[in-house]
Design brief:
alpha/beta, Alpha-Beta Plaits, Rossmann fold, 2 domains, seven-stranded mixed beta sheet, four-stranded antiparallel beta sheet, 8 helices, 32% helix, 31% strand
Amino acid sequence: MEYLVTKFNIEADAELMQTARELLADAIASIGYESFEDTPEGMLGYIQRDFYHKTSLEEILENFILPQVQISYTTQEVESKDWNETWEAEGFEPIIVDNQLVIYDAKLPLPKDMPMTVSTWIAIDARLAFGTGTHETTRMIVSTLLHMDLKEKRVLDCGCGTGILGIVASKLGAQDAVAYDIDEWSVENTRHNAELNKVENLEVFHGNASILSHISGCFDIVLANINRNILLADMPAFKEAMNHGATLILSGFYKEDIPLLEEKAKEIGLSHFNAISDGDWACLIIS
């Protein structure tokens, strides 16, 4: 998967800078930007090349909600080698979820002094910068899974990244899991991480939501931690893959996006909603 990075230069008074960053991130997430990084001058935004649309970006900037703020930008390719080598070199610190589960970097020593209540350990060899549990959206879905009974459940992980969600579901007792990702590198990384964690009931496919029509059977739990636009586009396909009474767990979007996603869910016949949040990020549990 090829990414572009857009460097945004934000001209704003000091007290407005962080607000401008947050509003800008929310606005450009609606056109496909997936990840954001603050800089002294403003912000970096990362987007898949196939989703980048210059006209849409410029329209957002021209109509930015804070008229007293001026934003300029430049966009360039992200070198895959540099992107991943930097991430791999830095690694990540152990993530503890609800004092019950630890996600740790497989390349670093096994963490010590963890809470006595921890019963599940997940090793992730992160060969890309998404899906380690460090992001709020991943942690919210993992926390939700920790409070569900997954025994004898069939789980689908849409846009699996490192495979973290499918692996967690398996470790928590899921009967079997299926995952897919449009990025072949992610498919390989999911298989690698499943092997690291001795997970044998996770099947991984390369493709987008269209592959669901070729996967036999339906699912009791469907997980998708993807940007808002893809969730809106793919939700009908998720619904078709759900058993009667199944649960759909979505994240990868902001709290402000909840009404839009709930409206889409209602259109396809889903009506029971529970929303949780972590900072500005949100997670929807739908049935």
